[in-house]
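Team,

Forwarding the record for the chain on the shared tracking sheet. I've put the sequence and predicted structure together so nobody has to dig through attachments.
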Amino acid sequence: MSLRSRLIPFALLAVAPAAAAQTAAGDWKFETGQVAGICRLSGDMEISKPDAHGASTCRFVAKQSCPGDPPLEFSVQQSCSVARSGKKVEITSRIERVLSVKPDDFLDTVKRGYAPDNFSVRLNASGTEMSGLFHSKSVSTVRFWRPNSDLVS
């Protein structure tokens, strides 16, 4: 086996992370800092590969948990568009439906008052994390990470 044939696999491994870092496509988990004073928002998001024009779409379920008396927890399914410029990623969302609310008597309040969850984040060089701001009716920090570090190129 020649030296060249032994080095090619290593060269391919070195290039793979750089190629993956060029896209935000794939599966993500996210979590915000405090929202509305006492709540936290977390969820799972799937971002599509960019089309020929560089546009991506996404879908996610956001789960908001608020300790208190009574504690409030609800999940909202959303669709979104993704705009990317360099490492900056803008995610603009639209509510599809409220999936669950506990306690049940807050269902109407959540349906009437919940606003779409939007994000302004930066993709890190390795393509494994995004961090920045969550903005909706309130603003907070947010961190996205790949659930199993599988990168999509």
